[in-house]
Structure formats: C-alpha cells, structure tokens
Amino acid sequence: MEGKKLYALTVRNIKCYFKDKFLFFVSLITPMTLLVLFVTFLRSVYIDSFNGIFESFGFYAEERLVNGLAGSWLLSSVVSVCAVTVAVCSNAVMIQDKIDGSVNDIKISPVKGTTLSLSYFIANFAVTLIVILAVLVVGFAYLAIVGWYIPFTDVLLIVADTLCCVLFGALVAGVIESFISTQGALSAVSTLVSGMYGFICGAYMPMSQFPDGMRNFLCVLPGTYGVGMLRKHFMQGYVQELGRLGLSEQGQKALQDSFDGNIYVGKTQMPLWSMYVILLGTCAVLLAVYIAIVVLKNKKHIPKKQ
Amino acid sequence: MTAGTNQNSNDRTDAPFIKITDLHKSFKGVKAVDGLSFTVKKGELFAFLGVNGAGKSTTINIISGILPKDGGTVIVCGADPDVKAESVKSKIGIVFQSSVLDKHLSVYDNLKYRAALYGIIGEQFKRRLDELDQLLDLKEILKRPLCKLSGGQRRRADIARALVHNPELLVLDEPTTGLDPQTRQAVWNVIENLRATRGLTVFLTTHYMEEAANADYVLILDSGKKVAEGTPHELKTAYATDTVRIYSHIEEAVALFSSLGYVVKRERDYADIEVSDMFAATQLILRYPELFDDYEVLKGNMDSVFLRVTGNKIMEVR
User: Fold this and answer.
1) Of A6, A211, B156, B175, whose CB has the highest number of CB atoms within 10 Å?
2) ipTM computed for the complex
3) Are B48 and B203 in contact (CB under 8 A)?
4) 3-state class of B239 per DSSP?
5) Residue A292 distance to chain B (closest CA, Å)
C-alpha cells in the first residue's frame, strides 16, 4: 500500500514541476546561458585553443573534427552543470509545498513522512534525469550534424556518468533544501548554485586554466570528478580520431590536460576509476545524511506532559 | 466563564466523537493552547470560535495528527492521533482556510493523487469521483487547472478533496472566508446535505457569527483557553444583550430612557434601547406603553456574544 502512495506522490511531484512553467524555465537558465555564450563567443574561443595546441605539435585538424570536439566539450559542460542546477530548481516543488501549505494537506492523509520525503527525492532524480537526457539527445543530434566521433561504448559510459551526476545533484539538493522553508531562501540558494556551480565545475573555462590554489580547492569538491568523467568520455573518441590522423601522444595528452580530459590532484593524474569511487562514495555519504535528516524530521516529539 | 457549562459538559459526555482533556501546546515557550478541554458529539455541527491567534489552528492540527501535543489527552474517533495517526487521519477530512491543492494541476489530478494516499485508486476512485460530482457538480471544472478557477469553484474542489475518502469528521477551517453570499450558501447547502444524509460530524471555525449561530454547540477560545461554551441559545442568553427598537415617539423615548441610564442609540428612523434580556424588555414596554406604538424586540446575536466574551477581556486588560 505504501508503495502505491509513494508512486502517486512521485508522479504528482513530477507533474507539479513540469506544469509550473516558471520553475521549468528557471531551471534551464544555466544551460541556456551556456548555449548563448557558446553561440556568441565560447565556440570560437574553444576552436582557437584547440587549433593553437594542434599547431604547437605541427598538426592540422579538419574542421568537422574540431567543431565536433568544441560541441562535445560544451555538451559535457551543460550536462555536468545541469545535473546540479536542475536538481536544485526541481526540488523547489518540496519547498513550494511547505510555503503554500500543500504539505499539510498531504500530511493529514495516512501517508508516512518518510514516504513523502522519498517521493520528493525520487521525483527530483527523475525530473533532473528527464531534462538532462532531453539535453543529451538534442546535443547528440547537434554533434551528429557538426561532427560525430563518439564510439557507442562511450555513449553508454556518458549515460552512466550522467546517472552518477544526477544522483549526486539530487542528493546535494535534497540535503541543502531540507533546511529551506521560505521563498527568499529558495531564491537565494537557486541563484547562488546556478551562478556559481558553472564556474566551480569549469563549465565556462577549463579548470586547468585556473590558478593552482583554486585548482587544488576544486579537487576537494566531489562534483569536479563528475565533470572529469564526462569530459573524459565526451573527448575520448575525438582524441582517438586525432591520434589516428597523426596527432602525437604528447599532443593528445596536452589537449586532454588543457581541457580537463585529465584531472590532476597536485601533480598526480587521477585514474578514471578513482573518480567513480569519489563521486559514488560522496553519494553514499550524502544519502546517509539525507536519510538521517528525514528520520529526525519525521520523528514524533515525546509529549512533555501527560 | 461558560454558559451553562457544568450542565452541558455533563450532558455531552455520551458518545463523544472528539474528546479533548487538558490539552497543552507551546511554541518556543509561547502557550498556543493552555489546558483546553471539550467534547464533540457524533453528527453535530461544532463551532470553534476565537480571534486570530487564539489557538484554533493549533488545536485542529493536533486533532488531525499534524502536530504532536505537549500534554493532555486527545481522542478522535476512539483513538489518540499521536499513537494511531493513520487510523485517525483516514477518518478526517479538512477544508483549509486557503486552498492547499496543487494550483498547476487539474482538479482531476489533484483528486486522483490525493485519493491514492487513502488507497483509493482505479475503479474505486472513478466511482468515488462520480459520487463527488453528483454532490458538488464537478464535471465542468475537472479538467481545468486549479489556478484558472474562481474562488467558489476552487472551494468546491477543496471540499471534494476533503471528502474524497468518505471521512467521518469534516474539519472546516474558515471555509467561506472571501466567498460571495451565493457561493457561501452553496457551500453550506452541501455541508447540510452531508450532515442530513450521512450524519457527518462537522468541526467548524469561522469569523461569520451567523454561521456559528446555526451550530449545535459553540466553544469560544481566547489565548489558548476556553472562555465560553454552550448552545447558541445558551450563549446568547448568557452574554448577548437584547435590543428594543422603537419607531414611534423617538424623541421622547430617547430623552426618557437616556435620563434613566439606558444605553440608547439614535438612528435616522428609529432608536435602539439596550436591555439585558427579554424579561427587562417586557418590563420596559409594560411600564411605558404610551411610547411603544411601533416597536420590535431584537434578540442578541452571536456577534454580540463573541464581542462580549472576547472583547471584555481586552477591555479588562486595558
């Protein structure tokens, strides 16, 4: 019975998000900003940088390959940023319920508080995944037009990376927003996350171009490894094709180092498996924290006087 | 300060639907409910009155299992909401002061997802929706999002939601505030119909005293404490002042009764003379029959009861 209630609440939460056009629009601000920046100048900045690296290794890359590489870099940025920003915004359904009193209407029904909290989390995960998968499909279609060099296995790995990042984003949103119950606080958190996360995950410019201190700080943030995984799998096919066409191994490494295809902690290059361990380990910790918050919030107060 | 309290309290012990004894609830040291005791009998319309902040909503939240109590005992439909929350919740429907349904979802979706929380799904939900449609005429608004409905239509949706699981107790938290008179009447017709046909127990809070006047029993709350209770008639007898309205010999009557110390209000076509009760009014008329060619005696209403019970306290404090 509780499963049916969970299903009903989850579907209700998802519908509430998609039917609220304003909320839907706000959560897409960051990816749209990235797209506008890409169309206006980031694309040419990326292409100039790629060509600069190629020239330094005496290599000339065909236009289709460079365009595809720029597009895939953008898409990896959009996916990694959206995983957190969309999650933070879509979780607003939970806060909106507190603000307008809908949560009381749900609480007067015979549904467990833990079921309600779980429904918010599942709905948030589902909404974020739906939005990002839609972005991925459109992005892949774009890459197919400008230059597709991503092998099928990497496509599967990108989807797996996306799932990890969405899980991370949904848990971050769940933990942070458990403490929010006002519109002002929600706006502040959404704005802060939407504005800052793009920079700190290197969506606008590669982390490799940040100063050492900043780069070391970013290595402490688990989200960095989610970005690293996506960058790796988005770029890998293009780098292999460049190698096949004659770009030296140093050239391939320089390209990946410059555009976060490789993540370094100090001077040590992080292996891919360690990125999964860090990100999924963080998810496990966040999940434990989230469960603790839910249990504590739903615990009945012991009557002081009988 | 209760109207016939002892007599009534004793009478009201049989088959209580809600029984609250010495209820206490505080928020950060501020007492919201302070030693409240009352009973609600099955099938009655119970009016729970008080100024804003008197503790009405807190009491409702405790009854419905949203808030835990600090002390006292609360029994609703034979169970303590703190102990058997699910059992109590499945028997209570609440119409909140302002609509708390999802404004971007259609009325159908709102009812469907809320009904599912009571295990009402599939064919069972369709049958229940048909019943609610017959009761509340929902067809025209079912597919429309809540945010596109008028105040009256939205209230119908709220009542449908509160009744979706066929509750035994309907809590109405200021259900008609902000509604036009026609819609208010329509809402009350539905409630009366439910009481007549299903014996629904109704727990009402309202700021409209004429609605409270139709209740079977009234309790007035102030600063979390009970300040008066009784049937509307008992309360009016105990607290309301009656008025003799005189339409003839106005000038003479005003001069005479003012000099005798009565509270007299002169209006354009009449004068109102305040008297303590019907007996005093009769005495006055018999003593000065020459002044009473054209007059009427107005019984004190629930407005004056409420103002006297809650207002006196304010005046005492001042």
Assistant:
1) B175
2) 0.83
3) yes
4) helix
5) 20
